[in-house]
Amino acid sequence: MSRNHLLGAALLLTLAGTANATSFIVTTDAVVGAVAASTDATSDVSSSFRDDKIVQAARDDAASFVGSQGEIRGAKLESAFNHIRHQAPTLQASDAQLAQAILAL
C-alpha cells in the first residue's frame, strides 16, 4: 500500500472514531437528561404527597399501571393523578412518572 492510502485510511478511522464518540456523548446526555427529569418529578411528588390519603390509596392501582405498562388504569389512580396535577399545576410529569413516584412513597 502506498503512503497516501495508509494516511487516508488513518484519517477515515480517526473521523469515524470521533463521530462515534460524539454520538455516544449526545446519546448519554439525552439519557441523563431524561433520568434527571424523571427523578426530579419523582422527588417532587414523593416529598409533597407522602402522607396524602388520596395518593396512598392509589398505590395498588399504580402498581398495576406500572406492571401493565399503562394498560391498566384504576379509578383510584386516575383520582390521584387529577389530585396531584391540581395540587401541583406546574409539575411536568407523565402518568408513568407519577405512577412510579406513587410507588416510591
From TrEMBL:
Q: Which UniProt keywords apply?
A: ATP-binding, Helicase, Hydrolase, Nucleotide-binding, Signal
Give the signal peptide as a residue range, or say none if absent: 1-21
Keyword Ligase applies: no
Question: What GO molecular functions are on record for this protein?
Answer: helicase activity
The molecule here is called Holliday junction resolvasome, helicase subunit
> What is the originating organism of this protein?
Pseudomonas reidholzensis
